[in-house]
Every structure is written in C-alpha cells, then in structure tokens.
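Hey Z.,

So I finally got round to the magnesium ion thing we talked about over coffee. Here's the setup:
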Amino acid sequence: MDLLAASGLVKSFGGIKAVDNAEITVAPGSITGLIGPNGAGKTTLFNLLSNFIRPDKGRVIFDGEPIQELQSHKIAQQGMVRTFQVARTLSRLSVMENMLLAAQSQIGENFWQVQLQPYLIKKQERQLQQQAMLLLESVGLAHMAYEYAGALSGGQRKLLEMARALMTKPKLILLDEPAAGVNPTLINQICDRIQTWNREGMTFLIIEHNMDVIMSLCDRVWVLAEGRNLAVGTPSEIQNNPEVLTAYLGQ
Ligand SMILES: Nc1ncnc2c1ncn2[C@@H]1O[C@H](COP(=O)(O)OP(=O)(O)OP(=O)(O)O)[C@@H](O)[C@H]1O
Ligand SMILES: [Mg+2]
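And the result:
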C-alpha cells in the first residue's frame, strides 16, 4: 500500500488551473521526485497534499486515512510534514529556538504537566536540545545554533527548515526545492543526509530543479506540466522520455 496517494486533485486560481486533475503516489520507504517546468503546479500540489490550500476537488490518502478534510497541523501530527520553497523561519529567534518550537506540542504546553512534573519536563527539554543539536550538525548548522535565524543565508534557512521538520520524526517529509540557493558542497552533504534518513525509515517526496539531485536520490519521479501528470518512471526512464524533454524546452 502507498504511504501517500492523491488522485483527481484540481485547484484553480481565477482563470488559471494550477493543478488540473493530478495524481501522485509515494511508496513507503521511497525517495520520490516531483519535477516539471516553472509554474507547472508543483508547489501548489504540495499545498494541496498538506492542505495549506484546499483543493477544489480530489482525494488524498495518507497512511491509509483520508486527510483532505484535516487541518494542516493535524496532518503534521499524523506524520506528514513539509518545507517551503521560500523557507519560513523565525528571524528573531535563535536557530536552536526555531528547532525547539517544532517540538513544542510535546513539551511544557500543559500547565498541570508543568506544575506536576518539572523534572520530567526538564529531562525532555534536554533530550530535545540534544536531538536538535544532532540534526543541526547533520545539516552543517551546529556552529550557528545560538545565532539569530535572521543571520542565516537563504540556503542555510532552507537547511534549518529541513532539520526542523525532522524534529517531529515524521513518516513522510515533503521538501520543496531543498537544494535551491545551497552551495554545491552542502548539496552533496544534504543528499547524503537524505539517504541516511531514508535508510533509517523516513520517506521523502522532493520537488527539485537540480536534476543531479533528482537523478541520484530518487527511486521514482513524477513529472508535472501545466498542472497535469506528464510522466512517471525511474530517473533514467524520465531522462529518456521525449515528452518530458519537449515540456522543458517549451518553457
Ligand atoms: N496563490 C496563488 N494565486 C494565484 N495564482 C497562483 C497562486 N499560487 C500559484 N499560482 C499560479 O499557479 C501556477 C502554478 O504555480 P506553482 O507555484 O505551483 O508552480 P511550480 O511548479 O511550483 O513552479 P516553480 O518551479 O517556479 O516553483 C502558476 O501559474 C502560478 O502563477
Ligand atoms: Mg514551486
């Protein structure tokens, strides 16, 4: 059974059909790619899958449950998290605080819990800090942990967002252009990390324009053009598909 399966998704903005009867599936344990020319509807499809935008039509099943009626934070609690094409970090908080906020729902939010179990809460906070530090190390940001997030470059913010998404130990993580604005050395490091996290059991759906990243990471690649499914296959099938080539050249 697929971990994520969406079908018949439609979303119009005014006269533009940004997503036009699209489908996508993600197998558990896979690294699945989503590619397509600029404006193809990839980010909109992510927004529909995670219900940041409500679809006009369509159905999304995650981990065996229909989720298209759920609010996006509920979807995140069920284990599907996403990052944004333009990273959404809180500039006036430290990098570490950004990380800990992701885990907020797990600690210190309940008054009685705070009153009754201060020792447990402290212990949990320490564990979360350690977990945050390990994740920051893995994306090359440990040395920035106590700087303001506002001091990070665009690429570093993307890395922080990815690390933050992993704080909640999701089943599926949707990455919108993780390599955009990131320097080549770090891109290689990120790809290695994604593969390690994948071996540890995490499933990925990745939008990316960097074809080297897509080709080296993905088991399966979906191609979207003008809001519609154009092709799906292995990276080499997609690379050799003349229709895909035409869609890219036509942009
Ligand atoms: N909130 C919005 N309001 C109006 N139009 C929108 C909105 N979001 C997206 N669109 C339009 O929908 C279409 C698909 O956009 P989308 O951002 O999903 O494409 P994309 O495949 O992610 O492109 P890119 O590779 O450039 O990020 C575009 O024509 C875009 O202008
Ligand atoms: Mg996009």
